[in-house]
Structure formats: structure tokens, C-alpha cells
Design a protein that fits this description.
435 residues, Rossmann fold, Argininosuccinate synthetase, chain A, domain 2, 5-stranded antiparallel beta sheet, elongated
């Protein structure tokens, strides 16, 4: 049995100097000459895009490359990235298991706010980017690099998220975004470049997936292909983590989730680490057809985009967290949290995780969770998550004596309601008499 999950507070270090030879010209976002860059930390997956970027950086900037590959639960073998990087002459290679940090310090704090973007999206891609940006900056400091680089395109949100995060944590960092500089504009041109430069690319056998996918412990996303037409339904064979609700078991699955200070710590009485708990919920939720979403969202860069998402564990956690808050939070505190949540969600979606305003909101949200402790019982059935029970031994604000329809033994004087109603109606009565 794992030890109880502990909440860790992220330490946001102040700006630290990079290499001296980076020079003052990089400050305030000015452009340095290419030969002034000596070392770049590249967010590297080992796939086609980042393999081409690696070689392009070597050729274009004539610089040393450090590769960084993050394991945030995407479910892929990451060691091949090491061998590919070595083949391309990389001497400093970082492959970091960030699964626990991702869930503990990013997913759980976001879920304390019951965060949903535009009423539907649980921000699975958005919340991973500040962690990657943080680690890129840390590695740049460790290795004395002049710059960092990423493979996000110039049309998407991720470029904003990576770069806002990097600048917030290291104001003088240089960011190289190849998709905004080069003339490689399609998969075909990338493949031609790879062939010309003998870049090792593994070609997938059989039919290639037509979708652009991104996965981590919170979700998997799908874009592109037939999804670019918002009228065309997603193919059932697209989904990777979940069965369709129609194919889910005919028997309901009961599930108990224990919360401490607003964070889930145990499933059915078994204490689990944050990453293990979310992974288990993904398995349970997916098997019961939970967490599929098809939406058109408003990107920060100005366009609308249609995407499909699987977030089984997150869907369950959001419902359970609201249930335990329903008996442990004061009414006005709960309502204020709901009013602020859309702003918090936009900050996460748009890349402002490290902004002063998000950090301020987080302190308030975390303070509200001090008494959010207890147990929630859920019924999972064919894509539905239903709360069927909630209890908190020491922190519940629910009073049976006050809420009962039976004899309340004087706990509540119903005659008091008359004056309450008249006082609240006063302004409306005055307005009505005015005509």
C-alpha cells in the first residue's frame, strides 16, 4: 500500500542568468544572430517533427543540442528517443519521469478549482505545457544552454503556452520556434528533409492514423483528418482508452473516492499516489464508457478548432470533487469559486499558469480546500457518472436537523422566513409601484 499523497508547493525560482556568451541582445525579445547560439535544449519526442528540428537546429544555428523527453503518462516507450538522439550526435540527453509531478502539482491543483474550459474541456493538453516549459528552463540552467526550442506550430495554442511559461520562469531565455522560421510546411517536406539528411525515422507498418494525437495521464486528444469537418462524426475506431457507452458492461460499477484537503487520495479504501490513482481511474472509467468528448473550442490564437478527447479519470474526479465540496464548503465560498472558475480555466488554456493572477487565485482556492475531506460514492454505468453518496465525519456542514421535512424540534423557526422574504422583495415592490 502506498503512503498518503502529500501536497507539494511549487517553488517558482526567480530569474537566473544563462550563459554569458548569450549576450545582452537577447533581452526584451530582440533577435540575436544565429551564430551567437551555442547550445539549445530541445523538447524532443524522437518522432518525425522533432527529429527534423534537431537536425535543422544543428545546421541552421551550428550549435550543440541537448534533448529533453518528458514521460507524463503518454503510454509510449521513450527509450528509443535516446538512441535516436545519440545517432544524431547528441551528448546530453534527458528522459525524465514526470508523471507524479504532473498529477500532484498541476492536475490536482487545477481540479481543486473544478476547472472546465468553455463548459466542456478538462484541459488535458493545456495543463501539461507549463510543466514541460518549467523543465526546459531547468535543464537550460543545468547545462548552460543559451536557448530552448519546441516543435509547436505557428497556428496552435502550444507555442503560446510553452513560451509564456518559459519567459515567466526565465525572462531572458531565448526561444527558437522552427515552425515560425523554416520553409518546411508539410509532412512531405519533412520526410524529404529527413531523407536528404539521413535522419533515422521509423515508419509505422500498416495504415497510419489520420489524426494528430496528444496523450498524457489526464487525457488523449484527437485532431485533424475527418474531424476538421465539424459535421462529420468521429469514427468509433478512433478512440483508444474507452469503450463506447453502448458496449460498456450492463452492470454498474460502484466506486468510493476518499478526499483530503480537496485532493483524491484513495480508491475503494486503497491509498494510491497521485499518478497511480489517476491511471487507475482512467482504466475504470474507460472500461465503463466514460470520458468521451467531441467539441469545437476557441483557440487563443483566434481560430475555432474541432477536437475529440478522452478523459475518463478526470471526468470521474470532477464529479466526485464537486460532490464532496457540496457538503463541506460554505455556500458563498462555493459560489465564489464557481464565479472565478471560468477565469482560472482561461488562464490555464491560454498559457498563463505561471502568471501572478493564476498563482493568486490558486492560493485562494487551496485555502478553501482545508476542510474538503471525506468520502464520495459513485455509480459508473454506460458513460454516466452518478453521485449516490457523500460523507465527511468532521467537516460536513450538512445538518439533518435543519434540512429535515419531519419535526425539527425547534431547530428552525419557519415563521422567520416571512420577514426574510419581505425584506428581499422590498426593492422589487418599490420598482413595481413606480410603474
Amino acid at each position: 500500500m502506498n503512503e498518503p499523497a502529500q501536497r507539494h508547493t511549487l517553488r517558482v525560482d526567480g530569474p537566473q542568468p544563462l550563459r554569458q556568451n548569450a549576450g545582452p541582445s537577447q533581452r526584451h525579445g530582440s533577435i540575436m544572430s544565429k551564430n551567437s547560439v551555442k547550445k539549445v535544449v530541445l523538447a524532443y519526442s524522437g518522432g518525425l517533427d522533432t527529429s527534423v528540428i534537431l537536425k535543422w537546429l544543428q545546421e541552421t544555428y551550428d550549435c550543440e543540442i541537448v534533448t529533453f523527453t518528458a514521460d507524463i503518462g503518454q503510454g509510449e516507450e521513450l527509450e528509443p528517443a535516446r538512441s535516436k538522439a545519440k545517432l544524431m550526435g547528441v551528448k546530453e540527453i534527458f528522459i525524465d519521469d514526470l508523471r507524479e509531478e504532473f498529477v500532484r502539482d498541476f492536475v490536482f491543483p487545477m481540479f481543486r478549482a473544478n476547472t472546465i474550459y468553455e463548459g466542456e474541456y478538462l484541459l488535458g493538453t493545456s495543463i501539461a505545457r507549463p510543466l514541460i516549459a518549467k523543465r526546459l528552463v531547468e535543464i537550460a540552467r543545468m547545462t548552460g544552454a543559451d536557448a530552448i526550442s519546441h516543435g509547436a506550430t505557428g497556428k496552435g495554442n502550444d507555442q503560446v503556452r510553452f513560451e509564456l511559461g518559459a519567459y515567466a520562469l526565465q525572462p531572458d531565455i531565448r526561444v527558437i520556434a522552427p515552425w515560425r522560421e523554416w520553409d518546411l510546411t508539410s509532412r512531405e517536406t519533412l520526410l524529404a528533409y529527413a531523407a536528404k539528411h539521413q535522419i533515422p525515422i521509423e515508419y509505422q507498418q500498416g495504415k497510419k492514423s489520420p489524426y494528430s494525437m496528444d496523450a498524457n495521464l489526464l487525457h488523449i486528444s484527437y485532431e485533424g483528418g475527418v474531424l476538421e469537418d465539424p459535421w462529420t462524426p468521429a469514427e468509433d475506431i478512433m478512440w483508444r482508452w474507452s469503450v463506447s457507452p453502448e458496449a460498456a458492461p450492463d452492470a454498474a460499477r460502484m466506486l468510493d473516492i476518499t478526499f483530503e484537503h480537496g485532493d483524491p487520495v484513495a480508491l475503494d479504501g486503497e491509498r494510491l499516489s497521485p499518478a497511480a490513482l489517476l491511471a487507475k481511474l482512467n482504466e475504470i472509467g474507460g472500461a465503463n464508457g466514460i470520458g468521451r468528448l467531441d467539441l469545437v473550442e476557441n483557440r487563443y490564437v483566434g481560430m475555432k478548432s474541432r477536437g475529440c478527447y478522452e478523459t475518463p479519470g478526470g471526468t470521474i474526479l470532477l464529479r466526485a470533487h464537486r460532490a464532496i465540496e457540496s457538503i463541506t464548503l460554505d455556500r458563498e465560498v462555493a459560489h465564489l469559486k464557481d464565479e472565478l472558475m471560468p477565469r482560472y480555466a482561461s488562464l490555464v488554456y491560454n498559457g498563463y499558469w505561471w502568471s501572478p493572477e493564476r498563482l493568486m487565485l490558486q492560493k485562494m482556492i487551496d485555502d478553501s480546500q482545508a476542510r474538503v475531506n471525506g468520502l464520495v460514492r459513485l455509480k459508473l454505468y454506460k458513460g454516466n457518472v452518478t453521485v449516490i453518496g457523500r460523507q465527511s465525519d468532521n467537516d460536513s456542514l450538512f445538518s439533518t436537523a435543519l434540512a429535515t421535512f419531519e419535526d425539527d424540534a425547534g431547530s428552525y423557526n419557519q415563521a422567520d422566513a416571512g420577514g426574510f422574504i419581505r425584506l428581499n422583495a422590498l426593492r422589487m415592490r418599490v420598482a413595481a409601484k413606480r410603474g
